[in-house]
Amino acid sequence: MSTRARIAILISGRGSNMVSLIEAAQAPDYPAEIVLVASNRPDAPGLARAAQAGLATVTVDHRAFSDRAAFERALDAALREHGAELLVLAGFMRVLTPWFVEAWAGRMLNIHPSLLPLFRGTHTHAQALAAGVRVHGCTVHFVVPELDAGPIVAQAAVPVLPGDDEDALSARVLVQEHRIYPAALALVASGQARLDGGRVVFSEGSGAAEGALLVPGLAWSRSR
């Protein structure tokens, strides 16, 4: 019997991080299996990519509901119908209400394109360039009601180079997003990273270095 955690991925667009997760989950020893890709937009390109990979997909169009609460109840029902145990947000462009976040508390991850707590919200690369920081990056964190404020599972850093614009910096960060999201999900799905009093605690041998930092390029593996 499989003991892999059952994962649902939520997307609104092309789902580039979704693709990195799909590729990681194809390995037989990866501790999570993707059971559903859900989107709030029926035209999200990522839905076709997920279907091509043989994954179940569903659309819960937020425009079809009278309010946010009704949309989230329908989304929650779809996720539970497919037996999802963990949720992974991959470019899901809807702010979730406290009701939904609490319903999945400790079981929902997001990736944010900055080294939180720096540069929350949108346009993070422009924020980083305007601030003149020399290091930028991305963060995988548990979702809490406050936006981009959840306990951190993993971070990866990149240099900000002379002459960088938003596109160049974004591309450099995206490479690291695709590396650390599968690694962070593996830690959570295998129980090697868990929430304890609002912080993430790592088990010995999890591969995490210096607390919540994952060095870029760190491979997931239960044997490491």
TrEMBL record:
Keywords: Purine biosynthesis, Transferase
InterPro entries: Formyl_transf_N (IPR002376), Formyl_transf_N_sf (IPR036477), GART (IPR004607)
Protein EC: 2.1.2.2
UniProt keyword annotation of Transferase present: yes
UniProt enzyme class: transferase
Protein name: Phosphoribosylglycinamide formyltransferase
GO biological process: 'de novo' IMP biosynthetic process
Cited function: Catalyzes the transfer of a formyl group from 10-formyltetrahydrofolate to 5-phospho-ribosyl-glycinamide (GAR), producing 5-phospho-ribosyl-N-formylglycinamide (FGAR) and tetrahydrofolate.
GO CC, any one term: cytosol
Family, per entry: Belongs to the GART family.
